[in-house]
Amino acid sequence: MNLLSTSSTAGGLGFTLIYIVVICAVMWFLLVRPQKKEQKRLDTMLASLAVGDSVVTTSGFYGVVIDLTDEDVIVEFGSNKNCRIPMKKSAIAEVEKAEESK
């Protein structure tokens, strides 16, 4: 009788292990994979950023890039040429290339 209960416990343990692996795989496909794809898209977009591009910041401001460094950009907002704000590249949410807007 003792052998029978041990084999059913091992079978239950194997099923539980498979269940955990399946749940982890589903979570990876639903959460981690799309986030990595979005991060890759943002990195590509910021790498192709150039002077003259129109941008939208994460806070919703529209502007034009007037200077670039490795991590920072200077964005000119509105028609007032005195409104130039330096910010991190990571604060840019969308980019419209200069060639497309003309």
Automatic annotation (TrEMBL):
Topology versus the membrane: Single-pass membrane protein
Statement: the UniProt record of this protein carries the keyword Membrane: yes
Localisation: Cell membrane
Principal subcellular localization: membrane
SMART domains noted in UniProt: YajC (SM01323)
Pfam name, any one: YajC
Keyword DNA-binding: no
Keywords from the UniProt entry: Cell membrane, Membrane, Protein transport, Translocation, Transmembrane, Transmembrane helix, Transport
Transmembrane spans: 12-32
Similarity section: Belongs to the YajC family.
Protein name: Preprotein translocase subunit YajC
Species name: Hominisplanchenecus faecis
